[in-house]
Design brief:
Strand content: 35-45%
Pfam family, one: SfsA
CATH class of the largest domain: Alpha Beta
Oligomer: single chain
Strand order of the largest sheet: 7-8-9-12-14-15
Order of helices and strands: EEEEEEHEEEEEHEEHEEE
Radius of gyration: 18 Å
Protein name: Sugar fermentation stimulation protein homolog
CATH architecture of the largest domain: 3-Layer(aba) Sandwich
Helix content: 10-25%
Family: Belongs to the SfsA family.
Number of strands: 16
GO molecular function, one term: DNA binding
Shape: globular
Length: 230
């Protein structure tokens, strides 16, 4: 996924009220940028670190910038939680992911029972639901999820289990928007219920696919799959 507009460089002053951040631009001016990430953002917040923003000209927007990434540990980390859905949708549509390259129809935001999954794909042989999550939390060279308790995430896993039992293919896809990790596992210390539900999903045939994404000011693209550790 290439950014459609040139990003604006700055440095992080602070993040506050979950969805707002103060950014100092290179000309010394200070702007408020929208932060799409509602989690704790633990291990991807560092005051004074370089950041990139997308500028917006929409007069209806309260903020004129969206915070896209931050430079920590010699790597860009993508913090925009809307990016992973686009990445995986385009990759499934364009048949880039080996495990998901067989579908002729690919749609976004498809409802199943009382949930809405990020991606639905099908061919003549099977129908597949794919839920996508953004991962930024790092612990000892391992990416983990979530970075805060997520009852919504727990619900998605339980619905994936139901879909699998109903005959659908069910996939939980984690986009890790940082490259300084070697594997992926659930954050049992942060949300033990989510971790237990993920194991239950795995045991019931839900496929777990964690992928590292290469993040840069020009583009973000899926790079490689990493090992999933229950």
């Amino acid at each position: 996924m290439h950014f459609k507009t040139q990003l604006v460089r700055g440095k992080l002053i602070k993040r506050y009220k979950r969805f707002l951040s103060d950014i100092e631009l290179e000309d010394g001016s200070i702007v408020i940028a929208h932060c799409t990430n509602s989690g704790s953002m633990k291990t991807c917040i560092e005051e004074g670190a370089p950041v990139y923003l997308t500028p917006h000209n929409d007069p209806k927007r309260k903020t004129k910038y969206t915070w896209e990434m931050i430079f920590i540990n010699n790597h860009w980390i993508g913090i925009n939680t809307s990016i992973p859905n686009i990445l995986v949708y385009e990759a499934v549509r364009d048949r880039i992911i080996p495990q998901l390259n067989q579908y002729t129809t690919v749609k976004r935001e498809v409802k199943y029972k009382d949930s809405r999954f990020d991606i639905y794909a099908e061919n003549n042989n099977e129908k597949c639901f794919i839920e996508v999550k953004n991962v930024t939390l790092r612990s000892n060279n391992k990416a983990t999820f979530p970075d805060a308790v997520t009852t919504r995430g727990q619900k998605h896993l339980r619905t994936l289990i139901e879909a699998k039992k109903a005959g659908f293919r069910a996939v939980m896809f984690y986009v890790i928007q940082r490259q300084d990790i070697e594997s992926f596992s659930p954050a049992k210390d942060i949300d033990p219920v989510y971790a237990a539900t993920l194991k239950e999903a795995y045991d019931n045939g839900v496929e777990i696919i964690p992928y590292i994404a290469a993040v840069s000011p020009e583009k973000i693209e899926l790079l490689k799959e990493v090992t999933f550790q229950v």
